Amino acid sequence: MTLELLAQGIQTLKQSDEEINRLIAGRSNEIVSLLGRYVKEIELFNSAYGLVGTDDTEELVIKHILDSLAPLGIVYRLCKEKSAPKIADAGSGAGLPGIPLAVVMQNIDFTLIERMGRRAGFLCNTKAVLGLSNITVEEGELEKTQREYFDIITFRAFKPLDAKMLKTLFNACKTGGIIAAYKGKLEKIEQEMKPLQDACQWEVIPYSVPFLEEQRRLLIIKK
């Protein structure tokens, strides 16, 4: 069931965005297979490491794997604006959205930043199991990562933005860098960003997750 659901989701995403279709063209089976193995790794270690808040496979695939991939076209278009872009996944946890994105965007470098040792160990193990040479795992706080190094920083299930966190994210971003935050309802985003409106430029881009009837948006903040 897992592989079938992933395959259907990937096909839906290909049909929804020409950029995604070009990225995945000719690799659909490979991508589905890698993501299926990734789901198994999460399920194997979830109870011990608290990687995701569900033990239901269908929910894991839809709300975590496919949700991570749904704004792929947006993220890739941002990447094309950069030369040899470097992407960080802040507070990576189970590797979401970094690992699903890296599986598809195999020619782009990703750094998964995770402060908890056990979860960082899970990420290193998963990198090896999936054979993802475009991933680096960095155990530690985002505050201590390299300054002005990344072109794009992504995150989901991260604490709400405030001035301190925005400064930390910007410190890790190159000039002209971008924060791409996975978010939900527009009203909550506007409330979250209201205190920060004088500190940055931002926009919200909606995206749809296959099989999920929930509002999902990518919050884009430019340094």
Features of the shown structure:
single chain; 21% strand; Rossmann fold; alpha/beta; 223 residues; 7 strands
Description:
This protein has 223 residues and is of the alpha/beta class. The chain has one domain (2-222): 3-Layer(aba) Sandwich (Rossmann fold). It has nine helices and seven strands. It has helices at residues 2-16, 18-24, 28-49, 57-69, 72-80, 98-104, 117-130, 163-172, 186-193, and strands at 86-90, 109-114, 135-139, 150-155, 173-183, 201-207, 216-222. A seven-stranded mixed sheet has the order 3-2-1-4-5-7-6. Helix 6 links the parallel strand 1 (86-90) and strand 2. Helix 1 (2-16) crosses helix 2, helix 1 runs parallel beside helix 4 and helix 3 (28-49) runs antiparallel to helix 7 (117-130). The protein is globular, with a radius of gyration of 16 Å. The chain starts with a helix and ends with a strand.
